[in-house]
Amino acid sequence: MSDPVHLVCHYCHGINRVPRERLIDGPKCGKCGQPLLNGAPAQLDEKSFDRHIRRNDLPVLVDFWSPTCGPCMMMAPAFDQAAHRLEPAMRLAKVNVQSNPGLAMRHEVRGVPTVILFKGGAEAGRNVGAMDLEGIVSWARQYL
Ligand code: ZN
Asked: What's the rounded Cα separation, in Å, for the pair 127 and 33?
């Protein structure tokens, strides 16, 4: 048995311990039964953000976006698809900066879309501006 990996549930925000070799077996949340790696980004807000960034043992790629930003809306389907490609090496999440201005301010997000990769709770890299699917995947993989 390898060291367990801590994963925060996208739905109930419960913290799960999953053996690393089981990450590819569709692990489910022990609290709410939802899949932990569902091929879709988590929707984070002021309340859930820190828990996901600090307690996930996998790197977390966060898309800071706004519903009034055209390039953000164009990038959204690519970011959703990137979750399929990047799990279980990392997890993906989205933050609506209009509903969560405090998070945008705290992470000095000045333009959207901005993607920030968090590793071990700290920022490891960021990219400002829209990317296509291949762009997101190759940009993120350089940090693995
Ligand atoms: Zn859950």
From this structure: 34
Reported pTM: 0.96
Q: Using CA atoms, how far apart are residues 25 and 32, in angstroms rounded to an integer?
A: 17
Active-site amino acid positions: 69, 72
Tell me the CA–centroid distance for residue 130 and ligand 1, in Å: 31
Domain at 38-141, CATH homologous superfamily: Glutaredoxin (3.40.30.10)
Q: How far is CA 19 from CA 40, 51, 71, 104, in A?
A: 21, 20, 38, 33
pLDDT of residue 1: 57
**Mean pLDDT along residues 19-29:** 95
